[in-house]
Amino acid sequence: MPASTLDELVALCKRRGFIFQGSEIYGGLQGTYDYGPLGVELKNNLKQAWWRRNVYERDDMEGLDASILTHRLVLHYSGHEATFADPMVDNRITKKRYRLDHLLKDQPEAVLSRLYRALEVEEGHLHALVQAMMAFPERAGGAMTAAGVLDPATGEPGDWTPPRYFNMMFKTYVGPVEEEAALAYLRPETAQGIFINFKNVLDATSRKLPFGIAQIGKAFRNEITPRNFIFRVREFEQMEIEYFVRPGEDEYWHRYWVEERLKWWQEMGLSRENLVPYQQPKEELAHYAKATVDILYRFPHGLEELEGIANRTDFDLGSHTKDQDELGITAKVLRNEHSTARLAYRDPDTGKWFVPYVIEPSAGVDRGVLALLAEAFTREELPNGEERIVLKLKPQLAPIKAAVIPLAKNRPEITQYAKALKARLQALGLGRILYEDTGNIGKAYRRHDEVGTPFAITVDYDTIGQSKDGTTKLKDTVTVRDRDTMEQIRLHVDELEGFLREKLRW
Ligand SMILES: Nc1ncnc2c1ncn2[C@@H]1O[C@H](COP(=O)(O)OP(=O)(O)OP(=O)(O)O)[C@@H](O)[C@H]1O
């Protein structure tokens, strides 16, 4: 029986050290979680599996690790300042705060006209006016005061601050002075770091289309209502690919990546019945997307997005490139007045420049971990009527690959043998091997079932050549217990390397 409720998983995660509430001892910081000794292993294993598949096993992918602190212009031209946000403005006199577009909508026409002129925006285009004001907030604040924008609370003209966004992006200040010019963001997605490095990567690697850039890293969103454990949090990790293709080939590659990603999640152990591809209808699409397929997973709290695979057209590179007018960009992008790089591709045959289209498979690491835990959690009734909880994670993903257990803790020959064996197996580089000498053997098995350790290796009297029958024929053999079947086999210690390598191979 899989986990039926999130509470069951939350309890297991806390009890066994997978995941804890962030800042817990001070009452917790909402929307943050800390990965404990086992959680960090599981999460790393998932990320490594993704990296191996998408970077190492392919010949058309490069990796990247861009910075989390991001220049505000990156997120300006990406559209995040405008679309991840509500623009806000304060009246210094009344201390009232307003959403800028709502405030302007209700102003007398004469006031609005003055503003349009001040910001050099064509009359009647309120959206463009707001965007222009947000692009030049210092100028906009002054212009609002000069134009006599009224405060609805008093009906009197206000003394307006520069407008600013209040949105899901976390702001910070880079350098010692907290001023507008020093403002930067914690990235709300890893993707932008890839787009702005497109030319760097292309120049450094001489890639030909199609090719991709892959990145794993933290992203931050000031979610208004974080909930459902690690499903919706304010600090999370993403595994993102931006796959660059020729316009016209985008639909093929979009379908290709949906299939690839579905297959990969199944390889990670998620069952096909719990994975539902969902084609977003036109009205749900983000403004930059031509098509998006979400991979939904049947989480304990409901069917929700695990990964999104979007056809983002030439919006992203087109937004961040210089020379926009020369590149025949099809997406609607902001006029870029700051970029110093041509984020385009020169066709090796025709010599013509164009902006590649982008297919983006974007998956949440934390949502992945939650899905793996939910899928693996199993409550089993044993033949003797007892119940056990077992985490049936794929051995490759399990936080601990094998536990080496001395049968008797008070026999130095046995404990020393077990410690040496642990060190020998650890040196194979297969992941974490644990020397386990807490509790009796039954408790050790139970604990390792619950945290998903696929193999329990026990060093006993036979191992050290002290068999009950007085012979030494079982010397240097150990028992290996399988987590799922609970069956035990006896292997010579020299066979363990081959055994583990085989079982932990992808
Ligand atoms: N607040 C969050 N907490 C955890 N993971 C997240 C969060 N927001 C996004 N993700 C992950 O990043 C992936 C890509 O981000 P994207 O912007 O497409 O999400 P989204 O469509 O905004 O998600 P949602 O609609 O659930 O808020 C998502 O599929 C998800 O796995």
From TrEMBL:
ATP binds at residues 221-223, 231-236, 305-306, 364-367. The keyword Lipoprotein does not apply. Its EC number is 6.1.1.14. Pfam families: HGTP_anticodon (PF03129), tRNA-synt_2b (PF00587). It is found in: Cytoplasm. It catalyses: tRNA(Gly) + glycine + ATP = glycyl-tRNA(Gly) + AMP + diphosphate. Belongs to the class-II aminoacyl-tRNA synthetase family. Residues 7-395 form the Aminoacyl-transfer RNA synthetases class-II family profile domain. Keywords: Aminoacyl-tRNA synthetase, ATP-binding, Cytoplasm, Ligase, Nucleotide-binding, Protein biosynthesis. Homodimer. NCBIfam families: glyS_dimeric (TIGR00389), PRK04173.1 (NF003211). This is Glycine--tRNA ligase. Catalyzes the attachment of glycine to tRNA(Gly). The gene is glyQS. GO terms for molecular function: ligase activity. It comes from the Bacteria. Substrate binds at R99, E189, F236, E237, Q238, M239, E240, E360, P361, S362, A363, G364. Its main location: cytoplasm.
